[in-house]
Amino acid sequence: MRTLPLMFAALALAAAVPAMAAADENAPSFQNGSVWDFGQIKTVDGHFDDYMSWLSTSWKPQQEALKKAGYILSYKVLLVTDPRKDEPDILLLTEYANMAAFDRSTAEVYATMAKVNGPLPQASQQQAARAAIRTILGDMMTREAILK
Description:
CATH architecture: 2-Layer Sandwich
CATH class: Alpha Beta
Strand content: 25-35%
CATH topology: Alpha-Beta Plaits
Oligomer: single chain
Helix content: 40-55%
Mean pLDDT: 87
Radius of gyration: 25 Å
Structural class: alpha+beta
Number of strands: 4
Distance between the termini: 46 Å
Number of domains: 1
Shape: globular
C-alpha cells in the first residue's frame, strides 16, 4: 500500500514538469539592466574645441562628483562621425543603476545640484552662456535589456 502514495507523488511531479516548462516558455528572454541617458549636443561651428574643453574641465568633475555620491554608475562622451544636418556631433551618456535613481524629491535634486554645480543663479548663468557654443538637440532615455 506504500506504493499508492508514491505513485500519486510521481503523477503530481510528472504533471508539474510540463507546467514548469510552459512557465519558462512564457518568461521574458531578458531582464532589466541599467538606465542610460543620451544628451544630444550640436556644437556651433568653430566652437567644438571650446565645448570639449568645457566638458573636460566642468562637466567631467560634475559627473565624477555624482558618481562618487552614488547617483550615477558611469558616463561617456561619444563623438558622432560625419553628422548630418540637424544631428548631434556629441553624445553625452550617463548610466544610472535603474529607474529608481530618479525617484528623488525636488529638494534633494536641487541640493545635490547646488553641491555639484554651485548656487542655482550661478549655474543658470553658466548654462545660458554655453548656448553660444552649443545647442541641445534632445535627450533620450533608454534601459538596457540583458538577454538571458
